[in-house]
Amino acid sequence: MIIGPRLTRFGSRRVRITAILGAAAVALTATTLLAGLRPAPHDVTPDEPGAADSELVTTEIIGIRTIAPPEGVTVDTDVLYGTRADGAQLTLDVCSPAEAAPEATASPAPTATDAAATEAAAGPASARRPAVLSVHAGSWNHGDKGNSDWRAVCTWLASEGFVAYSVNYRLVPDALFPAAIDDLGLAVEWMRQPDHALRYGIDPDRIGAFGGSAGGNLAALLGARGSGPLTEGSRVAAVAELTAPVDLSYQGLVTGGAPFGLQRLVQRYLGCAAPTDCSAAEAASVANKLDPSDPPVFIGASMDEFIPLSQSTGYADALESQGIPHELVTVPGSYHSIGILDEAMRAKVSAFLHAALDD
Hints:
By secondary structure, this protein is an alpha/beta fold. It has a single domain, classed as Rossmann fold (3-Layer(aba) Sandwich). Strand 4 (about 130-135), helix 4 and strand 5 (about 165) form a beta-alpha-beta unit. The protein has 12 helices and 9 strands. The longest helix is centred in the N-terminal third of the chain and has 25 residues, at about 15-35.
């Protein structure tokens, strides 16, 4: 006779099956919940077609638009250079000169994981080309590497003998400072990896950066990123920028006479409620990051545009104080960014980049 409740042995077949099914259900539920929390991969190309427009809000044939399309340049589009924790898939376009560097045509990208073996397969770095990272503009909240004006910048740089990498980066409001500059740092590190450098025939020790307006701010900040040798990590060996806001502090913007619209754009980019209360402004202002080991800089500016000329002259003064070689070129008028990249300015920028990056 059994007295009291009957106790089922845990080792019985029925209980084991029930326990296994229960554990599987819990695991499946947990996996589903985790999948729901994991950001879905997405690119950073603007959703709205209009957002891909250039910063040149005019139909005039000015600046970069005055160049004839170079012949023989090849463009490798939408190359993935990284995926961020928020799911952002970061891409760039590569514009290569008509005559590819010998290593770029002699062999495909290596499969060996040994960096030394890859470098040996690449041959002497002196036979490869310098590279330039091209950073599009758009007030940090729009723009795209593939719009017609910035594609023209990419192919122009290639026609000058550089391998140009036109890069997309995360934009406001999806990502605030320092997301964009972190993305550019990642792009340079990606370019410098031996297999990637070999694939496009570049010398990883000779990487420069070019940008206009907001892209110029990022190119300048990239040049001041870190310290020490210009051949390691995300360091670049030259910077060229056109009409960039480089001092995002209260003094640089408000005291410097920047229009209210520019002040608001900066506040949104930095995630600040007011220019008087914006701790991120210091880190986003180039002069605060400079040191004597930083690369030479080219600054192009219009005399009468909405970016105060004091932004460019103040940048030049800061470079001077650190003993960093630099060149400041001002032009009359009010054209902005690559709107001043006409034949004469293109010649100056190209000469500067070659002087800085050629052996």
